[in-house]
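Subject line: Sequence and fold of a protein, written as structure tokens
Body of memo: The sequence and its backbone structure tokens, given next.
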Amino acid sequence: MSTARDPFSSDLEEWLRDDEKKTIGRLVDRFGSRSFAILFIVLMAFPALPLPTGGVSHVLEIVTMLLALELIIGRTEVWVPNRWRRTELKGITGPRFSAALLRWIRRFERFSRPRFSHLLERRVTNAVFGAIVFVLALTAFLSPPFSGLDTLPAIGVVVLSLAVVLGDIVIAVVGIVIGALGIALVVSIGSALANLF
């Protein structure tokens, strides 16, 4: 899934800086088989911010869950309705946000190397990847509003997806651990809040 030619961050930066509109369809056309993981990174990076994002993050989490279902049922290429293909990724491809995202990705690239990358390219692994992303995105979606509890599950999705793009099983484990901590936090604090009110 990762390319030996250029770092992923360079490919993504080139796509972000070209003059064409940044739509879901163009992203899928550009990145091909890596599109699922890249879409998860782009879509869940916004909810991963420790800031109140209002209802925008919920929309991104729903789209992420729908794409994860495609992986679970065995799709190898992203399918989205034509209307969605034309949807612009405006806020999440803006200059400030994309610069921060690229810096974050480059940090991971410094420590990443292909480790058991063949395990991340199997159909069964893709289904498991989709299932984990679905659970983490659902957890972020169900977390109490304006609590910031959606941050850890969203970071888990971003790190796990980055691991798939980079072909590094060690980073995948880190993403799963972050996501699991996020789930535990949402469940424990969410139930405490429910009991309080």
Notes: The two ends are 47 Å apart (CA to CA). Residues 9 and 103 are 9 Å apart (CA to CA). The chain has nine helices and no strands.
